[in-house]
From TrEMBL:
<dbReference type="InterPro" id="IPR017946">
    <property type="entry name" value="PLC-like_Pdiesterase_TIM-brl"/>
</dbReference>
<dbReference type="Pfam" id="PF03009">
    <property type="entry name" value="GDPD"/>
</dbReference>
<feature type="domain" description="GP-PDE">
    <location>
        <begin position="1"/>
        <end position="238"/>
    </location>
</feature>
<dbReference type="InterPro" id="IPR030395">
    <property type="entry name" value="GP_PDE_dom"/>
</dbReference>
<keyword id="KW-0378">Hydrolase</keyword>
<protein>
    <submittedName>
        <fullName>Glycerophosphoryl diester phosphodiesterase</fullName>
        <ecNumber>3.1.4.46</ecNumber>
    </submittedName>
</protein>
<dbReference type="GO" id="GO:0008889">
    <property type="term" value="F:glycerophosphodiester phosphodiesterase activity"/>
</dbReference>
């Protein structure tokens, strides 16, 4: 079972930042998950919320703020004062950080509230420029977005994020054209349907696994990987449970 650091090791360092990604690498994770959005000047930045208020000292929406303005914000103090001065990274910066390591890079396209026209093409282009498309898995809650990814790059891996139901996915004929590599269900959706989806050829990566009983449930259902903000702790529990 792969252990993927959700927004980096986000329980011990500010999410989607260099300290969280560096800690994830130190935790010897199998993969790192990040979120991308487009700024006012069409730059790809790594941040989860559509607005700046929660994880930076800025205000307003990402789409209405330039990358230069965002790079001036403090993205660490909200988590802990020792991270004061930590910045919101560009996607290109993250790619440079992870390039030397044998890691999967799960990139969530944060377009479930805002469509961010053209974001899929920009993400795939920059992955190609860094020769990292084979390490990447692009995910989204928007089926249409994954369809665009598939048209741009027919062999890039894609994952569909689910938070409410898995039932539509059991109608395989309606999803075949997407050639999804994986399904990423919320942990609350983990039940017998997951076994059916695995039998249909999908890899299963639940999110966000933070508690011991959630992790044990994932082990029972033999999922392919988990997203967790505490990868070091998760790996320890897996070792204790499976040895």
């Amino acid at each position: 079972m792969k252990v993927i650091a959700h927004r980096g090791s986000s329980q011990v360092a500010p999410e989607n930042t260099y300290p969280a990604i560096r800690r994830a690498i130190q935790d010897h994770v199998d993969g790192i998950e990040i979120d991308v959005q487009l700024t006012k000047d069409q730059e790809l930045v790594v941040i989860h919320d559509e607005w700046l208020n929660r994880t930076t000292n800025g205000k307003g929406f990402v789409f209405n703020t330039t990358s230069a303005q965002i790079k001036k914000l403090d993205a660490g103090s909200w988590f802990n004062k020792k991270y004061k001065g930590t910045t919101v990274p560009l996607l290109e910066e993250v790619l440079e950080w992870v390039k030397p390591y044998s890691l999967e890079l799960h990139i969530e396209l944060k377009n479930n509230l805002l469509p961010y026209k053209g974001m899929e093409e920009k993400v795939i282009r920059i992955l190609n420029q860094h020769n990292l498309e084979k390490k990447a898995v692009l995910s989204s809650f928007r089926r249409e977005s994954l369809e665009i990814c598939r048209k741009i790059h027919p062999t890039i891996r894609t994952g569909y994020l689910c938070w409410s139901t898995l039932l539509p996915l059991l109608e395989q004929s309606e999803w075949d054209y997407l050639h999804l590599d994986s399904i990423h269900p919320h942990i609350s959706l983990l039940d017998h349907e997951v076994t059916l989806l695995k039998n249909m050829g999908y890899r299963i990566y639940p999110y966000v696994i933070q508690r011991k009983h959630e992790l044990k449930k994932c082990l029972r259902y033999q999922v392919d990987g988990i997203f967790t903000g505490s990868p070091n702790k998760a790996k320890q529990i897996i070792r204790e449970t499976t040895t």
